[in-house]
Recover the amino acids of this structure.
């Protein structure tokens, strides 16, 4: 099959350093303002009030979080918001040492999927862990939300700063 | 449902490189022209064109298939572009299959291309948009998070160590040393190299991950009456399957890819495969990360849940093992130009089943292989079964 591999031209760092390569650049300007939607608007409003909520599906009976206007399994409308606790269980986690552009972070971030108490089993959300030694984090660890003070909340997922271990 | 029989009759690709001087369109032409050359066909012999390419944000070019179409031989022909994230490469072959199986066309040129290097400072800047724009992106995620979270879920469920998983990276990078198009082949890499590489997002380390890559791959697919005229070694498409899971990924069991199983069951049923472990001789599962190969081997029903690492440690998945897995060198070794990487796996099966894989040839005259790709928000499985 060797003869059917086209030997394309490989550019090296050196080629760029020596100014051997011609290229064009462009920086897009495209800002977005997303409407949060029927279900997530309520989720965000409740976060601003310091509460987590889910929704109930009348067909499968599950309590789903993040909230959604319809249950994707049953394909029927959900029928109401349900208050949840601001505690939960770590389902899985990572200890992340890099930013999106591969620059090393001084302090690692600990993203985790956290199953929220009061929702149906396995209903997790993505958030961060804090006030914990990264090496001490375990799957199954019980955690609680650390909220921003009310005057700093803006109706966003970041109104919860992070989750920390329950004593 | 009546379907026409479809074969792959030609394949070609570019070398996979970190950064190619060629534009995306030029890379597509290089692969397409090699695929046509391999079966002594010209563009005049091609009825329709299928293009596979992942996010437009990589190129910064809107309507990428229209941009790519000239390089793919699409001018003046029916053209379609399919896009299911990392699953695109295998999906483009599936699309090529149904173009011909439907009876609508006799010959289709399938071209998958990716040039990730254009997106500066890092293609992750485009990848980040995979996270939910309202409930997740504000947390400052990067793409490695979903892999790290999934890998940890898999390791925790089955009590696996990093060493168990690093064996995959070693195998594939060693296999790639025999691939003439490979970016990261290394005949001497060891498990210690992987375990000692930079920690990016634990449990993911540098050598657990495939590299950012530019490259293109093309295959020619033909109806039986054309295939038999073009070649005496047609490689038949015996089964195809694809399946999508929910985008609410934090609500799913991340330790098992159910959607891959569903896609595999669809493909196996079409292929008449009832015992995949006996009836499949080579597997090319999607391996952008080392644990993904294991995850996908289990989803493909080739090993019990949680047992693929043990099989890897026993050498079963080596090129000369009972079930050679990623004899190409996979994405970890050959490279990962998203859509092109998965079509490379289809091309590898084509060469292996024809006995043309050179130094990579698996012994024992394999008769049937499966290729699989995966993508979107950890939610799509695409599967194709080829046989001779």
């Amino acid at each position: 099959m060797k003869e059917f591999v086209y030997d394309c031209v490989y550019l090296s760092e050196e080629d760029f350093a020596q100014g051997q390569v011609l290229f064009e650049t462009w920086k897009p300007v495209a800002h977005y303002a997303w409407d949060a939607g029927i279900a997530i608007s309520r989720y965000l409003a409740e976060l601003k009030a310091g509460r987590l909520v889910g929704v109930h599906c009348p067909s499968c009976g599950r309590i789903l979080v993040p909230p959604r206007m319809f249950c994707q399994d049953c394909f029927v409308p959900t029928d109401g918001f349900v208050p949840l606790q601001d505690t939960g269980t770590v389902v899985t986690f990572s200890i992340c040492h890099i930013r999106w552009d591969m620059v090393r972070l001084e302090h690692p971030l600990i993203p985790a999927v956290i199953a929220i108490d009061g929702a149906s089993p396995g209903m997790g959300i993505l958030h961060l862990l804090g006030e914990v030694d990264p090496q001490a984090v375990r799957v199954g660890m019980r955690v609680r939300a650390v909220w921003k003070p009310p005057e700093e909340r803006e109706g966003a997922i970041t109104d919860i700063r992070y989750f920390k271990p329950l004593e | 449902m009546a379907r026409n029989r479809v074969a792959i009759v030609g394949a070609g690709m570019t070398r996979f490189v970190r950064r190619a001087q060629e534009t995306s369109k030029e890379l597509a032409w290089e692969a397409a022209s090699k695929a046509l050359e391999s079966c002594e066909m010209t563009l005049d012999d091609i009825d329709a064109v299928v293009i596979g390419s992942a996010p437009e944000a990589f190129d910064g070019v809107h309507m990428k298939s229209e941009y790519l179409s000239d390089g793919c031989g699409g001018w003046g022909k029916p053209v379609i572009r399919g896009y299911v994230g990392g699953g695109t490469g295998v999906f483009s072959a599936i699309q090529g299959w149904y173009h011909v199986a439907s009876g609508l066309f006799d010959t289709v040129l399938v071209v998958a291309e990716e040039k990730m290097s254009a997106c500066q400072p890092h293609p992750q800047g485009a990848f980040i948009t995979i996270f939910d724009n309202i409930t997740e992106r504000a947390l400052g995620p990067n793409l490695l998070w979903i892999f790290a979270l999934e890998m940890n879920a898999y390791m925790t469920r089955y009590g696996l160590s990093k060493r168990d998983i690093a064996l995959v990276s070693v195998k594939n990078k060693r296999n790639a040393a025999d691939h003439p198009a490979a970016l990261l082949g290394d005949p001497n890499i060891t498990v210690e190299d992987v375990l000692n590489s930079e920690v990016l997002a634990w449990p993911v380390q540098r050598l657990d991950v495939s590299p950012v890559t530019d490259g293109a791959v093309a295959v020619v697919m033909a109806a039986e009456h054309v295939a038999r005229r073009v070649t005496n070694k047609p490689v038949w498409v015996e089964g195809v399957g694809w399946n999508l899971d929910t985008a609410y990924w934090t609500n799913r069991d991340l330790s098992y890819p159910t959607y891959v199983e569903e896609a595999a069951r669809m493909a196996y049923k079409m292929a008449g495969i009832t015992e995949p472990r006996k009836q499949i001789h080579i597997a090319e599962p999607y391996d952008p990360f080392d644990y993904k190969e294991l995850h996908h081997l289990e989803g493909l029903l080739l090993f019990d849940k949680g047992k693929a690492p043990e099989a890897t440690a026993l050498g079963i998945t080596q090129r000369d093992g009972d079930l050679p897995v990623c004899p190409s060198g996979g994405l970890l070794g050959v490279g990962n130009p998203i859509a092109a990487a998965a079509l490379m796996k289809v091309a590898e099966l084509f060469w292996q089943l024809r006995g043309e894989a050179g130094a990579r040839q698996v012994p024992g005259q394999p008769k049937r292989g499966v290729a699989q790709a995966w993508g979107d928000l950890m939610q799509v499985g695409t599967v194709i079964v080829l046989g001779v």
